[in-house]
């Protein structure tokens, strides 16, 4: 019974020193962060892709993917800005299953969170410094934010966390964009209440101290679909939903209306090939409606080296969580988006 401490307490600065950006590297990251913020504010009209593995379970596979993505980014940079998904902690409704690199840095070994924290920093650091890309992660544990605040450029608050007060309040103190997903129920008001809280000043206890925040005007919506009471998937990327979302932004007077479509999860019914069709349909809606083109300017895509998923990490670069588009299909899709935007 009770909580039992394992080992000594984490020394934050000691962990951060293990993988710290040099002033030159930090300046390059800051420049990309400014570009990303300009996209959210509507000053930069490029399309945003938050793209990469469902979970970054293997450092070398994630780095191989990052190098390929960096080469592709150079080719499409005039119309597309990509931030790599480097998701290192996975929500588990019943506590079972793979919980991500943070919990289990070696999938063949027992969980080790201290080593996991080091592995998370190392992976974000290597991708930034070796490829020039910047990274996104899911803010599953608000208390861990300070461990990666200098490395991660985009934070996502997931469907199971968006109602949580601490997630919302911490998002209000982050200087980078924070995407707030609709909950699994599909209730868009819950998501918008989260965005409202994140965009406004808050006071709360964080790391045993009372803190105040300035509010984060870069907090925005991610539409990920939902499941109904029967467990059936309910997409929410359709045109009528997009119009409702844009109207709600206006009614609430929120800053920087920006919408990302999560192309997997409940929008695709976890049928990973559906991601391609969902993007094509959204681009048609963009071409047809000026407001959709202006404000629905991001996609979240689950993509890895190999198509699909596997139960055990036997095939290099194949997801052990949700199924992903393989690299060949990913490359074709990004080029298709680039060509479509140029028409």
UniProtKB/TrEMBL annotation:
One Gene Ontology molecular-function label: 3-deoxy-7-phosphoheptulonate synthase activity
EC numbers listed for it are 2.5.1.54
Question: Does the keyword section mention Coiled coil?
Answer: no
Q: Which GO terms describe its cellular component?
A: cytoplasm
Give the catalysed reaction(s), semicolon-separated.
D-erythrose 4-phosphate + phosphoenolpyruvate + H2O = 7-phospho-2-dehydro-3-deoxy-D-arabino-heptonate + phosphate
One Pfam family linked to the record? DAHP_synth_1
Identify the InterPro entries for this entry.
Aldolase_TIM (IPR013785), DAHP1/KDSA (IPR006218), DAHP_synth_1 (IPR006219)
Identify the pathway: Metabolic intermediate biosynthesis; chorismate biosynthesis; chorismate from D-erythrose 4-phosphate and phosphoenolpyruvate: step 1/7
Keyword set, alphabetical order: Amino-acid biosynthesis, Aromatic amino acid biosynthesis, Transferase
Tell me which Gene Ontology terms the entry assigns under biological process.
Answer: amino acid biosynthetic process; aromatic amino acid family biosynthetic process; chorismate biosynthetic process
What does this chain do?
A: Stereospecific condensation of phosphoenolpyruvate (PEP) and D-erythrose-4-phosphate (E4P) giving rise to 3-deoxy-D-arabino-heptulosonate-7-phosphate (DAHP).
In the record, the note on similarity to other proteins reads: Belongs to the class-I DAHP synthase family.
What is the name attached to this protein's record? Phospho-2-dehydro-3-deoxyheptonate aldolase
Species assigned in the record = Streptococcus massiliensis
Native organism taxonomy: Bacteria, Bacillati, Bacillota, Bacilli, Lactobacillales
Give the gene symbol.
aroF
